[in-house]
Amino acid sequence: MSQEPEPEDVKPKLNLTLNYEGNQITVKVKANTKFAKIFQAAEVCFARTFKFVHEGKRVSKDDTPAELDIEDGDQIDCFLEQVGGGPPLAS
User: Fold this and answer.
1) Which residues have a Cβ under 8 Å from the Cβ of 1 and sit 6 or more positions away?
2) Pick from 19, 23, 30, 36: which is nearest to 75 by CA?
3) What is the pLDDT of residue 59?
4) What percent of the chain stands above pLDDT 70?
5) What sign does the CA torsion over 73, 79, 80, 82 have?
6) What is the DSSP letter of 3?
7) How far apart, in whole angstroms, are the C-alpha atoms of residue 19 and residue 24?
8) Cβ atoms < 10 Å from Cβ of 38
9) Residue of 11, 77, 90, 78 whose CA lies nearest to 47
10) What is the pLDDT of residues 44-63, one digit of tens each?
11) pTM above 0.70, yes or no
12) What is the DSSP string of 22-71?
């Protein structure tokens, strides 16, 4: 019995783990899903605003897993987004 190949327009779903200080959630996404949607899920779950990193590189909201060669089971690390940090104000 042979399996029929999947149509090329059907993208397999990936399980990605979002990790924040050891707390993890797994999201199932299509390879062409924009990370903005994935980021929103993490920020709602953890009630924080993050920057996201995969293998040492910052992930932007307009990136997709396919563009970054992210595979099923990969982990995205979440770090609190820091606001400010500019030079001190002159007195």
Assistant:
1) none
2) 19
3) 96
4) 80
5) negative
6) P
7) 5
8) 21
9) 78
10) 888 888 999 999 999 999 99
11) yes
12) TEEEEEEEETT--HHHHHHHHHHHHTS-EEEEETTEEEPTT--TTTTT--
User: If you search the block for the tokens 């019995």, which residue do you land on?
Assistant: 1
Predicted confidence (pLDDT) at residue 78 exceeds the cutoff of 90: yes
Q: Tell me how far apart the alpha carbons of residues 78 and 46 are, in angstroms, rounded to a whole number.
A: 10
The predicted model gives 11-23 an average pLDDT of 90
Instruction: Kindly report the number of other CB atoms within 10 A of residue 28's CB atom.
Output: 10
Rounded CA separation 17/76 (Å): 6
Structure tokens at 1: 């019995």
